[in-house]
Amino acid sequence: NTWEIITPNNRTNTEIPASDGANEVFGVRVNPKTRDVWCTGGCYGIWKVIPDNKMTLNISGIQSDSTYKAPSNFKIVADVGQNNGAVSAIEFYNGDIKIGEVNNAPFEFNWNEVSYGDYQIYAKVTDSEGNVAFSNVKLAKVRASAVPQVSIVSPANNAVFDFNSTIEIIANASDPDGTITKVEFFNGTEKLGEDTDSAYTFSWTNVLDGTYQITAKATDNTNQTVTSEPVTVSVRAEGGNLIYFEDFNDGLAQDWAPSSGNWAVTDSQYYQSSTEGIFNSIYNGSTFADFTFSAKIKSEWDNNFGLIFNYQNDQNYYLLELDASPSTAKLKRIKGGAETVLKETTYNGSGANVYYLVEVINNGKQTTIKVDGDIIMGNIPTTEFIYGKIGLYAWWNKIWYDDISVVATTDIPVEEYVNTCKNQPYFGLTETGKYVRKGENENGVVTLFITNLTVYPSFEISENVEICQGEDYLGWTESGTNQLELLTTSGCDSVVVIHLFVNEIPQKPEIIAAGDTLTCSVSGNYFWYRNDSLMQSHNTKSIVIEESGNYKVQVSNQKGCSSEFSEPVFVVKTSAVSNYLVDIFNIYPNPVSGSHFYVESYIPNFRSGKISIYNAEGKCIYAEKTVQNKINIETSKLQNRGTYLVVFETDNFVQTRKVIFI
Predict the structure, then answer these.
(1) How would CATH label the architecture of 242-409?
(2) pTM passes above 0.90
(3) What would the CATH number be for the domain defined by 56-143?
(4) 572 with 616: CB under 8 angstroms?
(5) Residues 139, 64: contact at Cβ < 8 Å?
(6) Across the chain, which distance is largest between two alpha carbons, in Å?
(7) 21 pLDDT exceeds 50?
(8) For residue 241, with 0-12 CB atoms within 10 Å meaning exposed, 13-18 middle and 19 or more buried, which class applies?
(9) Which class for 303: exposed (0-12), middle (13-18), buried (19 or more C-beta within 10 A)?
(10) What percentage of the chain has pLDDT greater than the value 90?
């Protein structure tokens, strides 16, 4: 339809294409197929060209066509790509039934306690501009019995094979409550073969170059199935080289990330259409080393274009910059954001709107440049960045790129962190540092290794150790020199030489009792104990008895070695002066085997006293006051047969004697 004329003027009508933003208009006609706009000036109108809906949605967390044990918990993760507007909502479905919704990242939904049944699980995304996309459908079965288990043990994930190889696939499969009836092997959705006998293997022969996802599917005796996690393998192109190739025929620039400018796939080419500025697009799908990087390039204007290689970040990379007219070429190093021209030359060019085949050949040390097969720069030193990503470059210019390829003679660089010990070189490297080396990985593929090496020292230590007689040090009990080989915390061998000295212990002491004084028979440092408790303030050779109890003593020498404990001595102390030498009472019969025995006092004019009997543990089991010179005590008071201590106390005397009950 024709828009209404708002403010007429005398400007000439002009047909122009419309772009986003503010535009001065008089009247407007829009062709819905070409989106060309016919307009004249006079006022300002604002419109926006809505891009096509290319939004994608994938879900993960459930292996399709697999069986799970009831009840099951699923964590469904949604991944949105190429959306025009912000994600408004992601809805999760089982068939026609909505089971959940999330509105904010991360787009994850937990579907818990899923019971027995067959399920068709998918998701729907809606963005802020009303665009809608649906995910793939995951088929899952939930069964009551335990599901089988399966995993691929060979080849390893990300393994690389030569062209036309035979790949041996080996799977481990088991069933907790049954048996495995078969294991099927797949490349993507293509079935390669199956095996019904353990171990489960399949030989995939004559595999051509490319990247493949291998899975194994196990079936048990109840027809429950489970699919393994995929294993990705790559096969080199004929000639043994790894290849990245992109012709944009699928309409996508997979893993290409523009840092500026307007980059889009147009007419099966990668087209940069902005004209005012410097624009880059970096391939984030891989890094490369020892490669040939080539592309077909057409410049619409007589300005600059080129290729980026060994890209580390936006401050560090190499740039080949070509000018369409005049036909000049510069090889530049950008380091820390600063630009240095390494080489400048000319090439045989025909100006703008002509395709050129441009090649960068880099081995990590030197770079050679070709244009349409002619070498324009040869073996230019480029050792600052020896590997990295690739990219495309436009300087105030509309540029077309096609048939981008990287042919690498080594696998993708591997950064490794290695610890080693002194005198144990790692590929000839003996000092801590960062190194670059070329070698074969675990699959025999020539690879560039970035080695971060840490070299730990080894030690030889000598130490003197003293122990006491009867002790051991690491199992050694005698004086002498011993050698011990140990590993440090960093895993390096170290030698410890032990000079061991075994010191004698003092002889076992005896306690000599004299009145109210106890004396140790051995000299040294004294440790007196009463009732097995250390007497803190008693550290002399002799001590005065202050309380009744079981006394013992231990002696240590200057080396800190301690003797055995003395035999214990039981002492009863009263307020009166103790006399251990005068017999103030007698026990008979002793030993005693009958029903009773007698305790008789020898003290003249005896008036009163107390008799106490203690067992071998020092516990008083009988006590009685008496005014008689002779007392009859029944043996039933003694509890068991054995040795007992009888204590006889008066106001002026105290004495102990043993009685033996047999």
Answers:
(1) Sandwich (2.60)
(2) no
(3) 2.60.40.10
(4) no
(5) yes
(6) 156
(7) no
(8) middle
(9) middle
(10) 48
